[in-house]
Amino acid sequence: MKYLAFLALVAAASAHLCMISPPQRGSMSGLNTAGSSDCILLKAPCGGRPQSGAGLSIPAERNFTVTIQKNLDHWLEASPGYFSVDIALPPFTDFKQLVQIPDMGEPSLHLYSVNITVPGSMTNLDAVIRSMYVTKNPKAPAVFYQCADIFVSRKLQQNL
To answer: How many structural domains are present in the chain?
Structure first.
């Protein structure tokens, strides 16, 4: 019985961040279920999922909406955490933060959408957008990761 209780506790405490747009690496099954197994990636920098090749094409120097999901809430009033959206070029080790969103105790399955602008210096290159949930909760894992592979296209020319 203790073993079953332990497994139930582990299942309830493991699955916490999903990236909806751009689509995260790997599967997106169970996203509408709090505690989805596709949302518990704990290994930096991308949760242990390998690069899947060039993904969605995003134009440089133009707004793009990133949508992430707090798949399971780990908010702690005494030390609230945050979500981060970052970008990196190969070898995908030097991530630059594009935006930080405070965790204000929203419930599990809450969606956050933020506009980012990919720097023009990354034009015509493969890149990775990473989202992180930094919990700052000692009873939860410190950080959850998701990554999406993208291709940064040329910025669109405006008619003058």
So the answer is: 1
